[in-house]
Write a structure and sequence with these properties.
single chain, ITPase-like_fam, 5 helices, magnesium, EC 3.6.1.66, alpha/beta, hydrolase, 6-stranded mixed sheet
Amino acid sequence: MRVVVATGNAGKVREIREALGGLGWQLEGLNGFPLPEETGSTYEENAALKACSVAMTTRAVALADDSGIEVQALGGEPGVYSARFGGRSSDLERNLYLLERLRNVTDRRAKFVSVIVLAYPDGRIETYRGELTGTLLEGPRGEQGFGYDPLFVPDGETRTLAEMSVAEKRAIGHRGRALEALMAAHEHGAPSAPLPPMR
């Protein structure tokens, strides 16, 4: 099955391709197709916007994810706005902005959330969700990840996500858990339950 991965993030494409390799799908990047603006108020809405738009444009199955970090002391911010937190344009700037917001804050609990939507040209969609809880450091560590990975230590770990290999991160991470749910649903073919149409 041909599946277009609806993201411009090369790190996500690589992670998704490795995670779903066992399905035998032909996973492709966007190849210049534009993505709609993320105007949803939830991860589910934003992922569906991207997946449905790409599915209708390419007439192929499309996979999109929306993910973010929710910081308890900030009332769940930045959440769906994680990729544009504080108007900052790079991972480093967003990490520094988050650290500034958390200066003198002792409660550093946070969780990563990922929602993956698989959209079909005939209007069907599937939704999968994964979460990972942990704490935020007072400074970045590691070179392997992207986004907020250098600040985030998962519960039960001593290393940040950016200090782990792609395989290690996928095994425990929020996106990995959502992809695991997708894999489980498709290991023996498409899910048999009826799926709602795109709206």
